[in-house]
Give the backbone structure.
Amino acid sequence: MKALVILPIVIPLATAIITIFLGRSLRGKVVVSLVGGGATFASALLLLRTVWNHGPVVHTMGSWSPPFGIILVADLLSSGIVVLSSGVAMVALCYSVGYVDEEGQRLAYHPLFHLLMMGIHGAFLTGDIFNLFVFFEILLISSYALVAFAGEDYQLEATLKYATINLIASAVFLLAVGGLYGTMGSLNMADLSLKIARLQDPGPLPAIFLLFIAVFGVKASMFPFYFWLPDAHSSAPTPISAMLSGVLIKVGAYSILRISSVLFVALRADAQGWLLTLAAITMVVGACGALAQSDIKRLLAYSSVGQMGYILLGLGIGTPLALVGTLLFIVNHALAKAMLFLTAGVVIEATETREIGSMGGLSRHMPWTAGTFFVGVMAIAGVPPLFGFFAKFLLIKAALEAGYGFLAALAAVLAIATLWYLFAAWQQIFWREGSGHPPRVTSRLMKGSGFVLAGLILAGTILLNPLVDFLMAVEGQLRQPGTYIAAVFREVAQKGVPPSASTKLGANLPKSHAVSPPMKVGAVHIEGGLP
Amino acid sequence: MTTFLALTIGVLFGTGTFLLLRRNALKVIIGLSLISHGANVLLVTSGGFGGNYPPIIGPGGPAYVDPLPQALVLTAIVISFGVTAFLVVLLYRLYKRTGTVDMDQIRRLKG
């Protein structure tokens, strides 16, 4: 049962390796890739069920017990978000089979896609802060290659920007990890949480916390660091745009949520002002940017920036109500934005243009696609009865209750702006008098992918009560990091002293040093402060 | 030793930042790798220094250097090497397509 945690990471890795070695066989690659994607999704569902029934599942890598070795932890939040991301990835993968040209699929598309999935799931499931860095790099490197996949000039340029800003962020991430390890002498999140809670004087920790927020803010397209996003997300091949906007930017939001709810619980107030201010600016910038776009994919990308502002706002407010709203918002945005990108890809394929102004009158030729896009527009804009409305409503209500009247008003006004720019785009693409000549026929697989996600949004709306109940349980677990920490250290209690540590390094120690070495390391740092 | 390393880190970050602000994309990539080196050196210092001590506790006593940051830095070096190699290839493709490495001339997307 414990091995269940590694499945969402190992299955994509195995699939990637197998698809590399399948050579140039297109059919074989597609079949293995789809089976691997399906198996990942199934393992994620199984993991979520286990966590729901038996509480957090912890797996120690290589049997090195928690404070020293790397652990993977699945609580409700991480297993839930893995289900969400592997589901969206599965749909995007089906879409890719119809979208990416055969040569690309014969080459490296499928391995890269599965490595991206592996990195994302690893980042969600890891319980070790340096391991988080490693999984971030895995997902980033595969996403660089995927954004530049077709090798067009604009894709190369977008990737250069994307990689540059994220490489700087990685260096800053290392600085923060170094500072944290130098101060606290541990990298395990649960262990750090205990140690930080015991501190009298936080010392440099608030600064380190803000460094982490900035690093994750780059991934989550927070205000000063958002400018790579519209280029990268709009230049990438469409299924990759869906993955980037649907899942990848949520990794940043998830990481902020994770470190502020487990690691730096005591210091949360230090970051709150920054988070709220930057979230408000992000919302405004995203909405203004989207209003000015005439390219459909850039419009959707800017809309992602604006919507991330809402998610950051919820994280900044941090009350239980706000967090439930944020989680609901993450689910809604992941499904709806992925679906909008996929459907926009269908429309672009059909009309051979990305300019909204040159499209028009498509509802006559592709009524189902028009309907799907409409559901996405309404879900992102938050129009009742779709559950996007309840996500925004909860956020605004939480802002009002926490005394941020201005932010609540801003969020409400920008929700109307969102409706405006998305609905205007929909109306121009599908309703207006068209150019007359019928659009090109697009593959059923691509259209079907959009329908599946639209169906999921409608299902979420119908099953809103169980969904919100589940998210409240997630939030309840987040509010009590004790559950997470206890689950991690139950592992130690069962195992005792790590066997490999005592035999390998500690065997010929004199009695006075007969503790396992890494524990000693931790002790030295705690007593000595900064070395 | 600590002062010397602090200066090294400062110089690496300073030079890296200066190079990042150049228009020549190749210099930007060199600047990026300098910045990652700066971060790596800083990570090494977080393990503490004790002169020539080994990274294991020997029979002679507790004088040793924390081995973990060195393992972390090794991982980080490999990662930054991989990303830098990817960026260089990317820039070479871009150079072949556009005939320049000047970011102002490459620039088509509006950010």
